[in-house]
Write a structure and sequence with these properties.
Elements lengths: L1 E10 L2 E11 L4 E5 L6 H9 L4 E9 L2 E2 L5 H6 L2 E4 L11 H8 L11 H13 L1 H5 L10 H13 L5 E5 L7 H16 L3 E5 L3 H7 L2 E6 L2 E7 L7 H7 L4 H4 L4
Parallel strand pairs: 3-8, 3-9, 6-7, 7-8
Antiparallel strand pairs: 1-2, 1-4, 4-5, 9-10
């Protein structure tokens, strides 16, 4: 559903991604692992069109090349993105946040038929949000705001959803709820690209894994290859896999 090949880019003169390739299979979850500074968020930003400079590479969604189109067009092609600590519209109500998230849906006005249908689907998937539809979003807890951010990204009915560390800053009791939701979305055949620092949970729900180190793919493959993988241990212990000869 999502294929990335030969992706390179960075910020000004600073290169942060080097010949990165990955794929997210239809209805599957690919987890991107790596220590802080490995280039995980930059990778998602490059795929979404938010990285200032992408010098090479191809990005395809369901066969369509989106490498050169702006971010709003990538959303229309079926890409959803929930950034780390996503900034929702805190002075708007829950419902207003959701309607704004569906801006790319067909029809005129925020309450077009397509948006109303997407809104009801969101409330069905997130009953907690239905109960708070009139509440100012900034008054909700961090976990509730994270749920709203995910629901907002789902409003245009994306083919691929990218999540950047959805557990960041959440209480442990909420983390399980968030990952339960992510698993259900995958089971509903949504293709997901997940960046996550909680490795055990990521490996538990992933179908495929990509390990980044210093902006390069150090290893990739089915999750079964990573349950007790030396490369993963080396990266999270702070070793450089490219200096040990273990890069794949």
């Amino acid at each position: 559903m999502l294929t990335v090949t030969g992706l390179e880019g960075g910020y000004g003169d600073i290169r942060v991604l080097w010949n990165v390739g990955l794929e997210v299979r239809p209805g599957k979850l690919t987890a991107v692992l790596g220590r802080n500074g490995a280039g995980k968020t930059s990778l998602l930003d490059a795929i979404s069109g938010l990285l200032p400079l992408v010098s090479a590479g191809t990005i395809r969604i369901d066969g369509a090349d989106i490498s050169q189109v702006p971010t709003p067009a990538r959303v229309r092609h079926g890409l959803g993105y929930v950034q780390q600590n996503k900034q929702i519209f805190k002075r708007r109500t829950v419902e207003e946040n959701l309607l704004i998230g569906g801006y790319s849906l067909p029809g005129r006005g925020l309450r077009s038929a397509a948006r109303r249908e997407a809104l009801e689907k969101a409330y069905s998937r997130f009953p907690m949000l239905a109960e708070r539809r009139g509440q100012i979003a900034g008054g909700m807890s961090g976990g509730q705001q994270q749920m709203l951010g995910i629901a907002q990204a789902l409003m245009p009915n994306p083919k691929v959803l990218m999540l950047d560390e959805p557990s960041a800053g959440l209480a442990p009791s909420i983390v399980g709820e968030v990952f339960g939701l992510i698993t259900r979305m995958r089971d509903e055949q949504l293709s997901i690209l997940l960046v996550e620092q909680v490795v055990d949970i990521a490996l538990e729900i992933a179908d495929d894994v990509v390990v980044l180190e210093s902006g390069r793919v150090a290893a990739a493959g089915p999750v079964e290859q990573f349950s007790d993988n030396e490369i993963v241990r080396e990266i999270y212990l702070g070793n450089d896999v490219f200096s040990t000869g273990n890069a794949g």
